[in-house]
Fold this protein.
Amino acid sequence: MAAARMFSFSVGQLLHSASPMPGNGGRGRGFFRPSPVICPGREPTSHELSNDFDFQEGLKSVQALLRQHPKSSRGIVTTVDHLKRLCIDHYFQDEINNVVDSCVHLIHSDDLQDATLSMRLMREAGYSVSADEVLQKFANGDGDFKLAHSKHIRGLLSLQDMSHLNVGEASLYKAKEFSSKHLRFAIKYLEPNLARYVKQSLAHPYHVSLMQYKARHHLSYLQSLPTRNNAMEKLALAEFQINKLRHQREMQEVKRWWMDSGLAQEIPAARDQVLKWYMWAMTVLEGFSFSRYRIEITKIISLIYIVDDIFDLVVTQEELSLFNEVIKMWDLWSC
């Protein structure tokens, strides 16, 4: 019972709070969206963010941007990609779903960027899209990519991103090799900002990196372009500040729990590293909807470290044997 009182949510409650996303046409089943009901706290108000920025107006400006282009045009698909890379896409999920639903026309494009970007967005949304079928038009008779595409830098970048969503397709193995080779070769000939962006994309691929880390770099790149979108950039900056405040509040809650538990006093040799424990949960679970998950998982991680410290620093071999026996006898259902 003591262990149960250390946590404000049980595992069952956390699992129950996740609800399945409805299927949509060709989308796969089994995707989950966390319920916002379990999230503590509130979103910061506009005056907490900036004296000259209205958050709601910022949302409306970007919504207007999403309606400016025909749904199947490159402009609107590129805008959706920017929103996802800046981690502000969750504010416009309905609009983005409509855009992604119309991407089926672009995957048949003869333009490498249009076809691969729309295919990636559809696959991220759960659509079953065959990479081999989409990419075959860009390959020669031997199945290798045509050299004519080696000078299409943005197409190569999009192809590189798509290659990290490989589920065993031969074309995507070749896509990664082809795009990596020619992007590395092209770096020394590109203008500095684009060269820096290409280096970042190769060193820290979009789908295998911490999204918030990538968002900072993507915003810096957008700010270096001759044509900029102030509404999107300001909203991204506000989102960064919101996340900062949110993570600070979550860490404060974990810190209070840790101090109230008394474990730091009872086991002086144990590590007192709340920030380190929280970094695990923050990295794995991003977004406002996962706030309670991050807090509760951080508590579990802290106890794992405590047990590790007990084994390494505190007790004798005989005491460890007894401790193991107690753990084996632990009846989880009685908590």
Notes: The mean pLDDT is 82. The chain is about 60% helix and 0% strand. The beta strands are 18-20, 32-34.
